[in-house]
Write a structure and sequence with these properties.
Helix content is 49%, strand content 11%. By secondary structure, it is of the alpha/beta class. The strands form three sheets. An eight-stranded mixed sheet has the order 12-11-10-13-14-15-16-17, with helices on both faces. A six-stranded mixed sheet has the order 1-2-3-4-6-9, sandwiched between helices. It has a three-stranded mixed sheet with strand order 5-7-8. Strand 2, helix 1 and strand 3 form a beta-alpha-beta unit. The longest helix has 21 residues, at 602-622. Bound molecules: nicotinamide-adenine-dinucleotide. Residues 300-306, 323-325, 329, 380-383, 387, 390-391, 408-410, 431-432, 434 line the site of nicotinamide-adenine-dinucleotide (NAD).
Length: 703
C-alpha cells in the first residue's frame, strides 16, 4: 500500500511519500500526491509545502513494473504531477535525502527550492534502460547545475553523491543532517522573506560556443554508445534545453523519449532488468523461506575454478578454508590468486594492505578436519566422478549437520553426486563461470532432493557475492553449456558447408556477440573437447565422433595456449589471425567427407547459430530445466557474451516473432545434410506459435 502522509507544522504542509522500499512513483502514489498537493493549496492555513520521502530516501523514480504498460501513462502521470507542483500557488520545497533518482529527481527539480543533506544519491539513470529522463529532467537539470555537469549525469546515468553537488546550484540549502528539520527551517525563511517562486523553467542557460560544445559531445557520445540510440538522444534533448524556449524543449524531450520507448534496444534493456529480478524467485520455494546462515565457507580444490571461487568469496569478506591434495598444489593456487590481484593493484581498485587483508581470510589445509564447522563447502576438483566420490564421502563424514555441500561440476550428474552422501537434501550445484571472481553469472543447480531452504540460501549467498544467480534443473550441461553445445555444432556445420572460422566469427560479432565461437574455442582450449571425443569413441566403438578440431589438435593446435588453434597468434598477443594452414586442414577434411563447399552468407550464419540456441532453449524451457525464458536470457547475457541490446536469445526470438523463427528452423531442417531431429522446431516453439504466444508469456507446463 502506498500513500502520502499529510501533516501541517506552523503553516507548513509536510507531504511524505510512503511506498517502501524506495517510494517509486507508481499510479497509487501519484494519485495520493496529487490529492495532497491540491489539499495543501486549498488549505488557507498552509503557506508553504515540504515534499519529502521516507525509508530509503526521497524517491527512486518510476515504478519499473509499470513500464511499457498503460499504467505508466495513467492519470495523473508524472508530467501532470510535475506541472501541478510547478503551478502550485505556494512555494514547494523538496527535502532530498537517500535515494533521489529518475522520476524522483525530476519531481524534485520541478519544486521551487531543494534542501539537501549528505549521503544522498542523485541520478538520472534512464539511459541504462535505453531511455532518457522524459519528465523534464533534461530541461531543468542543465538550468540548475550547468550544461556540462547535467549532460554527464544524463548520458552516464551514474549516481552522484549529494556532497559533490552541494555547491552545484541544485540545492538552495545544504545541512549536515535531519532532512525534515532542514526543510522546515528553510521553508520558514522562504515564508518569512516572502521569496518569490524560483522555478527552474524560468532560468536562462548561458553557454558560449554551444554549437561547438554539442558537436564535440555528439562525437564523443556516438563513439562510446555502440548500438544504443539513447545516449545520443540525451545529447539532443540537452541541446534543445539550450537552443529552444522551455516548453519547446520539453516537447522535444517528449518526442525523443517516445521514440526511445518504442526502440528494440530499450525494450531489450528493460527486459534484462526485469529478467534479472525475476530470476531470484524460485518455483516451489516461497520468497520468505527461511535461509541457513552462511559464515565460514570451505573450498575443495585450488585450481582454475577453486582459486577464482576463493577470490570471489574473500572479495565479499567470507573466511575460507581451502583444501588441496598437496602442499605444491596449495602454494600454486595461492600464488596464482596473488598474481590475479595484480591488475586490481595496478588499477588502484585495491591497495597492498587490502590485498593482504583479503588473503589473510584464507586458511590453507591438506586435511579435512578444519572443514568440519564450515556452513558451506564448494567442491571444485577434477571433473571425474571417481575423484568427486572420494571428496563427497569425506565431506559427508566431516561436515557438521545442516552444512550445505555444493559442487561446481560442469557436466556430471548432480543427483548422482548427491546420492554419494547421506544428506542429498543438503547437496546443490553452484556452477561458477571462469574466471569465477569476475563473471557475474552463477547457475544454481537444483537436484531432485535439494531442500527448499538450501536453494533459498544459495540464492541469497549469490547476491552477497555480487552474482546474478539462475536456477537450473539437472541435465547435461545445465542451461548454458547445453545450449552452447548446440551453438558450437551449428558453427561447425557451417565450416563443413563452406564458411571459414573468421567468417563465422565476424558474422556473429557483427550481430553483437562479444566473441565468435571459434575465437571462444581458441580461448578455452581445443584439447578438452578432443579428450572428451576420444573417451566417447572408446566407450562407443563403431560410432563416429570425429571433428575438424581433432585434425587441428593432431597438428598441435590447442588454441591460444599453443599460439595456434582455429587462428594463429603472434607471441604474447591474443589477436586472432586467420591462418591458411587451418583453411588447408578444413579443405582436406571436407574433401575426405565428399563435401562440395558453397558460399555461406553472414545472414545464414547468424540465423543458424542463434536459432540453434533458441530451439535448444525452447526444449530446456519445456523440460522445466529453466523456470522461465527470461532466466535463459540472463544466463546467455551474463555468461556467454550475448548482446544486451538484443535482450538474450529467447527475447530476440520473441521480438523477431516465433512464427518466423519456427519457419526458419523448418527451412534449415529441410536443407540437404541437416538432421531434422536437431533442427525441427521444438514442440514448445510449435505450440506457442499456434497459440500466438511468446516465450516470455510461457509460464510453465500448466499454462
Ligand atoms: P583444475 O584442474 O584447474 O583444478 C582442479 C584442482 O583440484 C587441482 O588443483 C587439483 O590439485 C585439485 N584436486 C584434485 N583432486 C582433489 C582432491 N581429492 N582434493 C582436493 N583437491 C583436489 O580444474 P578446474 O578447471 O578448476 O575445474 C574444477 C571443476 O570445476 C570441475 O568439476 C570442472 O568441470 C568445473 N568447472 C570448470 C570450469 C572451467 O572453465 N574451467 C567452469 C565451470 C566449472
Amino acid at each position: 500500500m502506498s500513500r502520502v502522509d499529510f501533516g501541517i507544522t506552523n503553516g507548513i504542509a509536510v507531504l511524505t511519500l510512503v511506498n517502501p522500499p524506495v517510494n517509486s512513483l507508481g499510479g497509487e502514489l501519484r494519485r495520493a500526491l496529487l490529492e495532497s498537493l491540491e489539499r495543501a493549496e486549498a488549505d488557507g492555513g498552509v503557506e508553504a509545502v515540504v515534499l519529502m520521502g521516507s525509508g530509503k530516501g526521497f524517491s527512486g523514480g518510476a515504478d519499473i513494473r509499470e513500464f511499457g504498460t498503460p499504467k505508466a501513462l495513467a492519470q495523473p502521470n508524472l508530467p501532470t504531477l510535475i506541472r501541478t507542483v510547478e503551478e502550485l500557488r505556494k512555494p514547494v520545497i523538496a527535502g532530498i535525502d537517500g535515494v533521489c533518482m529518475g522520476g524522483g529527481l525530476e519531481l524534485a527539480l520541478a519544486c521551487d527550492y531543494r534542501v539537501g543533506v549528505p549521503g544522498a544519491q542523485i541520478a538520472l539513470p534512464e539511459v541504462k534502460l535505453g531511455l532518457l529522463p522524459g519528465a523534464g529532467g533534461t530541461q531543468r537539470l542543465p538550468r540548475l547545475i550547468g550544461v556540462e555537469s547535467a549532460l554527464n549525469m544524463i548520458v552516464s546515468g551514474a549516481p552522484v553523491a549529494s556532497e559533490k553537488l552541494r555547491d552545484s546550484g541544485l540545492f538552495d540549502a545544504f545541512q549536515p543532517k535531519d532532512i525534515l528539520k532542514a526543510s522546515l527551517d528553510f521553508a520558514r525563511i522562504v515564508i518569512g522573506e516572502r521569496r518569490p517562486a524560483k522555478r527552474a523553467r524560468d532560468r536562462k542557460i548561458n553557454l558560449p560556443n554551444a554549437e561547438a560544445f554539442f558537436q564535440f559531445a555528439r562525437n564523443i557520445v556516438k563513439a562510446a554508445a555502440g548500438p544504443y540510440p539513447a545516449p545520443l538522444a540525451c545529447v539532443e534533448a540537452v541541446a534543445a534545453a539550450v537552443e529552444k524556449p522551455f516548453d519547446a524543449g520539453l516537447k522535444r524531450e517528449r518526442e525523443l523519449f517516445t521514440t526511445l520507448m518504442l526502440s528494440p534496444e530499450s525494450a531489450a534493456l528493460r527486459h534484462v532488468f526485469q529478467a534479472e529480478r525475476a530470476a531470484s524467485h524460485i518455483s516451489g520455494v516461497p520468497d520468505d523461506t527461511p535461509t541457513r546462515p552462511i559464515g565460514r565457507v570451505a573450498v575443495v580444490g585450488a585450481g582454475t575454478m577453486g582459486g577464482g571461487i576463493t577470490m570471489a568469496l574473500i572479495n565479499a569478506g567470507f573466511p575460507v578454508v581451502l583444501l588441496e591434495t598437496t602442499q605444491d598444489a596449495l602454494a600454486h593456487g595461492l600464488s596464482t590468486m596473488r598474481r590475479n590481484y595484480q591488475s586490481a593493484l595496478r588499477k588502484g581498485t585495491l591497495d597492498a594492505a587490502g590485498l593482504e587483508k583479503r588473503l589473510a581470510l584464507i586458511t590453507p589445509t591438506l586435511d579435512y578436519a578444519p572443514l568440519h564447522d564450515a556452513d558451506l563447502v564448494i567442491e571444485a576438483v577434477f571433473e571425474s566422478f571417481e575423484v568427486k566420490r572420494q571428496v563427497f564421502e569425506k565431506l559427508d563424514a566431516v561436515m557438521k549437520p545442516g552444512a550445505i555441500l555444493a559442487s561446481n561440476t560442469s557436466a556430471l550428474n548432480l543427483d548422482a553426486i548427491a546420492r554419494i552422501t547421506r544428506r542429498p537434501q543438503d547437496v546443490i550445484g553452484l556452477h561458477f563461470f571462469s574466471p569465477a571472481n569476475m563473471m557475474r553469472l552463477l547457475e544454481v543447480v537444483r537436484g531432485a532432493a535439494t531442500a527448499p531452504d538450501v536453494l533459498a540460501t544459495a540464492m541469497r549467498f549469490a547476491k552477497k557475492l555480487g552474482k546474478v544467480a539462475v536456477v537450473s534443473g539437472v541435465c547435461d550441461g545445465f542451461i548454458g553449456n547445453r545450449m552452447v553445445m548446440r551453438y558450437a555444432e551449428a558453427a561447425h556445420d557451417l565450416i563443413l558447408a563452406g564458411a571459414l572460422p573468421h567468417e563465422v566469427d565476424a558474422a556473429l560479432q557483427d550481430f553483437g556477440m562479444a566473441m565468435g565461437p571459434f575465437r571462444m574455442s581458441d580461448l578455452a582450449g581445443l584439447d578438452i573437447g578432443w579428450a572428451l571425443r576420444k573417451r566417447r569413441a572408446a566407450e562407443s566403438p563403431g560410432r563416429d565422433f570425429s571433428d575438424i578440431a581433432d585434425d587441428l589438435c593432431q597438428a598441435g593446435r590447442f588454441g591460444q595456449k599453443t599460439g595456434a588453434g582455429w587462428y594463429r597468434y603472434e607471441a604474447g598477443s591474443r589477436h586472432a589471425i586467420p591462418d591458411p594452414e587451418v583453411t588447408a586442414i578444413i579443405e582436406k577434411y571436407r574433401a575426405q567427407k565428399g563435401i562440395k563447399p558453397r558460399k555461406v552468407a553472414g545472414g545464414e550464419i547468424v540465423e543458424r547459430c542463434v536459432y540453434a540456441l533458441v530451439n535448444e532453449g525452447a526444449r530446456i524451457l519445456e523440460e522445466g530445466i529453466a523456470q522461465r525464458s527470461g532466466d535463459i536470457d540472463v544466463v546467455y547475457l551474463n555468461g556467454y557474451g550475448f548482446p544486451a541490446h538484443r535482450g538474450g536469445p529467447m527475447f530476440y526470438a520473441d521480438q523477431v516473432g516465433l512464427t518466423d523463427a519456427a519457419r526458419a528452423l523448418r527451412r534449415i531442417a529441410a536443407a540437404p545434410g541437416n538432421d531434422p531431429a536437431v533442427w525441427m522446431p521444438a514442440p514448445l516453439l510449435t505450440r506457442l506459435t499456434r497459440e500466438g504466444k511468446t516465450f516470455n508469456e510461457y509460464k510453465g507446463p500448466a499454462s
